[in-house]
Structure formats: C-alpha cells, structure tokens
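Researcher: Next entry in the queue.
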Amino acid sequence: MGPWVHEHRGVLRIAVVVLAALVVVFLDRPTGAAILGVAFVLIVLLGVIEFLDQPREHTPPPDGPLASRGRAGDERRRLTTCTKAERHSAPPPRAVSTYGA
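Model: Structure for this entry, 101 residues:
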C-alpha cells in the first residue's frame, strides 16, 4: 500500500483538502468548533497520508549489489596500476630538445 500512496500522494492530498473545503462550504451554520473539527480531521488525514507514504524498494541486480561494480573496479585498477617492479624496470621518458636540431 505504501508504494501506491507514494505514487499518488499529490492527488490524495488535493482530494482531502478539497473534501474538507466542501464540508466547510456546505455546513448549514458553521461554528468555530465545527471549523476546528474539520481542520483537525484534515490534519489527521494528511498525517495518515504521510505515514503511509513509502517509496518503492529498489531490487539489487541478480549477481548482488556489489558484484558487477567490483569486477569493473578490479578491471580498471588492473589496467591503471602496475607493480613496484614494473615501475622501476621501465625506462625513464626521454626529454626531447628542440635546440640544436
């Protein structure tokens, strides 16, 4: 019920406020107590809508929440990092001079 209320909460709020306004308009002799009663019921109904408002839960991918991200992260890390021995065995970059050419 929560996801349905979450998807329709705007319409529900408007409907409750319009209904309360119609009750006040069509009261024969609105007294202060009657208006306070309608306002109290309105606040309670808006509170019930907020209480029932629950967003839909997201389902994790079939492999699990971290499985696909972990493999891509490992692949990226493997492509961009090298071992200490690889770092020291590579020749340093040569400086190219444009003078005296």
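Model: The two ends are 79 Å apart (CA to CA).
Researcher: Noted, moving on.
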